[in-house]
Amino acid sequence: MAENAKLMQGNEACTMGAIAAGLQFFAGYPITPSTEIAEMCSEELPKFGGKFIQMEDEIGSIAACIGASLTGKKAMTATSGPGFSLMQESIGYASLCEIPVVIVNVQRMGPSTGMPTSPAQGDIMQARWGTHGDHQIIALAPGNVKECFELTFKAFAYAEAYRVPVIVLADEVISHMREKVILPDPSSYKIPMRAMPTSPAGYKPYGADPDGGVPLMAPFGQGYRWHCTGLFHDESGAPSGKAAVADKLLRRLERKIEKNAQVLEDYYAESMEDCDIAVVSFGSSAMAALSAVRRARKEGHKAGMLRLKTIWPFPDAALRRLSASAKKIIVPEMNLGQLALEVERAIHGKAEVIKLGKVTGELFHPDEIYQALKEAF
Amino acid sequence: MRTEFRLSGSGGQGLLLAGIVLAEAAILEGKNAVQTQSYGPEARGGSSKAEVVISEDEIDYPKATDPDYLLALTADSYKTYGPLMKGGLIVVDSSVSLDSEIKARTLSLPILAAAADTVGKKVTANIVALGVLAGLAGLATRGTLRKAVTARVPKGTEELNLKALDVGLGLAAQSGIPSASLK
Question: What region holds the Pyruvate/ketoisovalerate oxidoreductase catalytic domain (chain B) (predicted)?
Answer without folding.
Answer: 11-168
